[in-house]
Amino acid sequence: MTTSTQASTLHDFLAPASIAIVGASTDPTKRGYKAIVGLLEGGFEGEIYPINPKASEILGLTAYPSLGELPRAADLALMCTPAASIPGLLRECGKVGIKGAVILASGFGETGAEGAKLEAELLAAAQEAKVRVVGPNTSGLFNLHQKLDLLALEGVKPGDIGIISQSGNMLLALALEAQAHGSIGFSTYVGPGNQTDVGFADYLQYLGEEANTRVATFYVEGFKDGRRFLDSAREVALTKPVVVYKSGSTEAGQKAAASHTGSLAGSYAMTADLLRQAGVNLVEQSDEILPVAEGLGLMQQAAGRRVAILSDGGGQATIASDRLSEAGLELAQLSSTTRNALAAILFPQAALANPIDVAGSTDANPELFIQCLQILAADANVDMVFLVGMFGGYALRFAKELTDAELRTADGLAQVAGSIDKPLVVYSLYTPVKPEPLLRLRRAGLPVTGSIEHGVQVLKALADRGAYLARRQGEQLAATVSVDPAVSASFATARAEGRDLYEYEAKNLLRRYGIQVPEERILRSESDIDAAIDTFGETPLAMKVVSKDILHKSDAGGVLLNRVGRDALRAGRDTILANCRAYKAEAEIEGVLVTPMAPKGTEVIIGMSRDPIFGPVLMFGLGGIFVEILKDVAFRALPLSRDDARAMIDQIKARQILHGARGEAAVDKAALMELLLTISAIVDAHPEIAELDLNPVIAYNNGYAVVDARVIVNKESL
Q1: Dihedrals phi, psi of 200, to nearest 5 degrees
Q2: DSSP per residue, 444-455
């Protein structure tokens, strides 16, 4: 499934039946020569058309002086010529019917203003010619099932992992890692380069449709259209795993913003949250890319996060337990039936609580592992099994020669694993020497790793993917809201006056959509003080300046707390006005807002900003003055589903505070969820909102109160 009802147009040229090499060369050091060598040596079965006005033949192939003199249109053109020549060549491609072009040259937007101008010309030429462009500034591509290799790599073999990498060196590293592994192969690779035309979302749709690709894997330095990628990932991840390694932060970086939310958006943490929300398996270490991609390709998913560790050594079982806990996985609580069944076949000294240490039981009889796997697979409390230790190396360690018992064990484990719906992941310290029992497990389609940490990351990825698919089955998006004309009018007034919403206007917006906001009054004159006393009596009040020119009220001395009575309000108003005029003499002051002091509760923050890469993004976390220091927040792209809202609340590290710590009452999580969903609906209904900050929201065991609200108005035309 893809985000479009139409199939990707990339199939037309990423699996070409013919290719033109523009800038083909007789010089073995040139890319226009190496590409032809790679095609010939790789056994490419389609037509190869070298384009060189000075040669009649290259490597035994007829050369043509120009694209216009080809006997028929090629599906793909590989451009091995300088940057300045590219726009004209793309127009030639369009005239002869070539559908796609791979542009190797650099010297475009990545070099500065002149390069950016040339890149804009390139894009205009491509659009005019109806030619899709890979690059420019790309390392090239391969499609190994088509025997198409424009990188002239050696030793890579066809497989089911599709790779899109912004780094050519990263692709080479993955290719070498796959060679050393021996069992991993690739379907398609593309270096997206500058993504002038074809971007990450387009490649993801292609890999989602491509029959030979089982896992779509990305190395990303920066997204250009992150929202499209998220939309595509949400659909592709329903049928295929999507693995992303994201280096650095979004290229938008930390943008200057008036709100807490705006200052925290644009971070790596935000990008990571949004990718996971869309079903992406995010890896955080570059050496995890292939193990996780392979494991997901082989196993696809797990039903839960509960892992049984089956080990022949206590030390490595302990390490595995530590890493599982750090990864957010659980040690399965084995049933008494399971423990009794294990006790019946293992030595008395075996540890039967999870992790299971066979304590030498398998040294002479490794086939006991088969029975152990069968027993664990029958336990309803177990979702996955992690075999940890030296299996595959028993003969090397004890018998000094390969035994039939260990081979039978490998075959038996593979047979049992293939008959159950609970993934088996194997870590063996003998993996680097590739003994035959481990090779048999790999050939049978089981992930075998030489790193406990990699094995744990595979298990985590399987659990995360299973959880995503389960969420999507019953997913419910937030209900929409009907646009309130009074709210639209307040935005129109603010935009006409070139300002953001005043706090009381922002709170009124929230009230009109059913959000719990304490009552308040604005003091502009002496009569307003009398009205406030009539309303609130002797209740302790908070006082805050209202000014379009003072965004951070506390910094200006524009906030006073616990004011009681008429005299206190009058004196407080005068103090705030004096402080704010001293802080910014030219500030226009609308008045002073008064509202009852909120009862003590747990402070949280809810905010929204429109990220330039990913669009509208909601943030949730602990509130107050420490939000930007602790940065314990969760992000989700809008609109929210109910599961998204629940996951945001459960994600933050301080969630135990929300559950009720040290005798404090737990907060009303259901009310917070509804608040998040309502904010999502409001933002969807009002594109006038550029940023929104509710900080703090005081959460109680029964409801909440929005104490402070800021709405930054979108000044651009809507």
Answers
A1: -55, -40
A2: TT--EES-HHHH
E-strand stretches of 551-687: 559-563, 589-596, 602-611, 615-622, 633-637
Q: Are residues 585 and 609 in the same domain?
A: no
User: Taking a C-beta distance cutoff of 8 angstroms, is the pair 164, 172 a contact?
Assistant: no
Contact 59, 36 (CB under 8 A): yes
Query: Are 104 and 80 in contact, with CB atoms under 8 Å apart?
Result: yes
Query: How far apart are the C-alpha atoms of 427 and 415, rounded to whole Å?
Result: 18
Cα–Cα separations (whole angstroms), residue 507 to 514, 524, 707: 11, 18, 9
Residue 193 belongs to a domain: no
Q: What is the CATH number of the domain that holds 694?
A: 3.30.470.20
What crossing angle do the helices spanning 226-236 and 200-209 adopt, rounded to 10°? 10
Phi, psi of 313 (to 5 degrees): -155, 130
The Cβ of residue 457 has, within 10 Å, a number of other Cβ atoms equal to: 25
Q: Which two tokens stand for residue 319?
A: 């390490």
Do 406 and 554 have their domain in common?
Answer: no
**Residues ≥6 apart with Cβ < 8 Å to 416:** 370, 373, 374, 377, 424
Indicate whether 474 pLDDT > 90.
no
Q: Any idea how long the chain is?
A: 718
E strands of 367-407, at which residues? 384-389
Tell me, yes or no, whether 458 and 314 share the same domain: yes
Peptide bond into 28 cis (omega under 30): no
- Under a CB-based contact definition with an 8 Å cutoff, are residues 357 and 351 in contact? yes
pTM of the model as a whole: 0.91
pLDDT tens, 298-340? Answer: 999 999 999 999 999 888 999 999 999 999 999 999 999 999 9
| Pairwise CA distance, residues 143 & 154, whole Å | 14
Instruction: Name the domain count of the chain.
Output: 4
In the block, residue with structure tokens 């595979």:
458
> How does pLDDT run across 236-294, given as a tens digit for each residue?
999 999 999 998 744 443 443 344 444 444 588 899 999 999 999 999 999 999 999 99
Query: Which residue in 620, 628, 680 sits closest to 655, CA to CA?
Result: 620
Do 84 and 120 belong together in one domain?
Answer: yes
- The strand pairing partners of 637, in sequence order, are 617
526-562, pLDDT tens digit by residue? Answer: 999 999 999 999 999 999 999 999 988 989 999 999 9
Q: In one letter, which amino acid is 38?
A: G
| DSSP-derived 3-state class of residue 27 | coil
Show which of 567, 596, 625 is a domain's final residue.
596
Domain that holds residue 409: 301-473
Residue 606: burial class (beta carbons within 10 Å; 0-12, 13-18, 19+): buried
